[in-house]
UniProtKB/TrEMBL annotation:
This is Branched-chain-amino-acid aminotransferase. Its cofactor is pyridoxal 5'-phosphate. CDD domains: PLPDE_IV. Acts on leucine, isoleucine and valine. SUPFAM superfamilies: D-aminoacid aminotransferase-like PLP-dependent enzymes. Pathway: Amino-acid biosynthesis; L-isoleucine biosynthesis; L-isoleucine from 2-oxobutanoate: step 4/4; Amino-acid biosynthesis; L-leucine biosynthesis; L-leucine from 3-methyl-2-oxobutanoate: step 4/4; Amino-acid biosynthesis; L-valine biosynthesis; L-valine from pyruvate: step 4/4. The gene is ilvE. It is an enzyme of class 2 (transferase). It comes from Clostridium lapidicellarium.
Length: 305
């Protein structure tokens, strides 16, 4: 395997040189937050494009601030480090980038002190995440964490235990993935994805007040629906049984991209195959992530110049 470089303590270093204490509060208590970003490879141009770097780093800084972990970098600096890191690793394929901000303290108290906030960034090649083109999901018996318990909009590392338990339950029951309800029973999101339903000509997605992460892909899907397809896009609470009566359902997310859901709780959705709207959104999405659509070029940061 070729050498892997990571960003740690303000510089790019060989991954083998990085160590984290077994006493780290990040390891013991999950005191941190993170981002997931993609860089898309354009084979015709032999170019790698960091996708919506500024939006992801804006969200990371907001997350870190919420957790009282203030790192001394701006959005522009973080975007620049990421481009340098991708270049150093010489990636020539679609890549996933994982920045993590965590409490570097090693004392036994599970407190967030801001005394030692740390940032690491690593990356790895990532093709299709779902492993399947069409998914079957079930409603999880685990409910999504509420904003009064743990802030869902910060991508806190600790919250992914909630996600992992839901995914485990779904997979053990033979489904591809789980879908969370909120504590009061509204459709919320997947373990690492937002949800859209298409019904009677409207594209509907739960609002931020239903404890979702305000996904960057979700934002793009809403824009594509409105601006490119001219359909009505609505943010409102969704009831569980509305899912069964939907014409189409799909997940959106950086890792999952746009992936259709064709079964929920063993009920077939629409025709039981990827719907026409999802197909169109996917075509638009993959047409712009690789820098091919000038209207959306501000989303794409070239790595090789
Ligand atoms: C819980 C959760 N919801 C939604 C998303 C989708 O967000 P984005 O499109 O910004 O990747 C993610 C992925 O980061 C997530 O972890």
């Amino acid at each position: 395997m070729s050498k892997s470089y990571v960003f740690c303590d303000g510089k790019i270093v060989d991954e083998n040189e990085v160590t984290i204490s077994i006493r780290s509060k990040a390891f013991n208590y999950g005191l941190g937050c993170f981002e997931g970003i993609r860089a898309y490879w354009n084979e015709d141009e032999k170019q790698l494009y960091g996708f919506r770097l500024k939006d992801h780093y804006t969200r990371l800084l907001q997350s870190a601030k919420t957790l009282n972990l203030n790192i001394p970098y701006s959005v522009d600096e973080l975007s620049k480090f990421t481009v340098e890191l991708l270049k150093k690793n010489q990636f020539k394929q679609t890549t996933y980038i994982r920045p993590v901000v965590f409490d570097g303290g090693t004392d036994i108290n599970p407190t967030l002190s801001n005394a030692e906030p740390k940032l690491i960034i690593y990356c790895q090649p990532m093709g299709k995440f779902a492993g399947k083109n069409e998914l079957s999901v079930c409603i999880s018996s685990w409910r999504r964490l509420e904003d009064t318990m743990l802030p869902p909009r910060t991508k806190p590392t600790a919250a992914y235990l909630n996600s992992a338990l839901a995914s485990l339950e779904a997979k053990q029951a033979g489904y591809d993935e789980a879908m969370f309800l909120t504590a009061d029973g509204h459709v919320c999101e997947g373990p690492g994805e937002n949800i859209f339903i298409f019904k009677k000509g409207q594209l509907i997605t739960p609002p931020p007040s239903d404890n979702i992460l305000e996904g960057i892909t979700r934002d793009l899907v809403m824009r594509l629906g409105r601006e490119e397809l001219g359909i009505e896009v609505v943010e409102r609470s969704i009831a569980r049984t509305e899912l069964y009566a939907s014409d189409e359902i799909f997940f959106s997310g950086t890792a999952m991209e746009v992936t259709p859901i064709v079964k929920v709780d063993n009920r077939i959705i629409g025709t039981g195959k990827q719907g026409e709207l999802c197909k169109k959104i996917k075509e638009l999405f993959f047409g712009l992530t690789t820098g091919k659509n000038p209207k959306y070029s501000e989303y794409c940061t070239p790595v090789y110049r």
